[in-house]
Q: What sequence folds into this?
């Protein structure tokens, strides 16, 4: 205050000094009055700032660790799923291959059975033709024998009929001769 009064008495040069000095003076006054509290406040803010930086660094590390853990877990799960899918695909391919092999086996078996049935059918046809041919020959032989026997029997019957006819002729000649003799005897 004493300076202020001195400045009032000095005039303009004092105004210049006071205009520059009040900010320094104010700081000094502030520093004197609020100095320890201001320093404590700055220390608290600095400590709080350091703690926040430390907490943020910790959170970053924790976030990075958790993100790495999540990424690792996701990769493991994807690898497990991929392995499962690969195994399932291989099993399906194997099953399809087995099914195809089974179908081919069934097809080959059916083809073999069809071939056997056709062979048996051809063999049965051949046997049937042979049997029919043999029976035809046997029937033909029987017919020839029957024809020969009937021809023989017919020839015998014709011969007997001819003989019987001849005997009739002889009998008729005999009757004629007898009639002539009887006529001759009657005439004599």
A:
């Amino acid at each position: 205050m004493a300076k202020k009064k001195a400045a009032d008495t000095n005039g303009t040069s004092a105004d210049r000094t006071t205009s520059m000095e009040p900010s320094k003076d104010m700081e000094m006054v502030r520093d004197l009055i609020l100095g320890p509290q201001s320093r404590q406040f700055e220390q608290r803010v600095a400590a709080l700032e350091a703690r926040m930086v430390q907490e943020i660094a910790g959170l970053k590390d924790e976030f990075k660790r958790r993100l790495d853990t999540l990424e690792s877990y996701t990769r493991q799960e994807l690898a497990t799923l991929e392995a499962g899918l690969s195994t399932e695909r291989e099993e399906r391919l194997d099953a399809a291959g087995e099914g195809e092999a089974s179908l081919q086996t069934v097809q080959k078996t059916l083809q073999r059975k069809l071939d056997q049935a056709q062979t048996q059918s051809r063999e049965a046809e051949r046997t049937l033709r042979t049997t029919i041919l043999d029976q035809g020959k046997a029937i033909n032989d029987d017919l020839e024998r029957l024809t020969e026997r009937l021809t023989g029997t017919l020839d015998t019957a014709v011969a007997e009929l001819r003989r019987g006819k001849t005997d009739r002729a002889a009998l008729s000649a005999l009757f004629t001769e007898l009639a002539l003799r009887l006529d001759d005897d009657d005439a004599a």
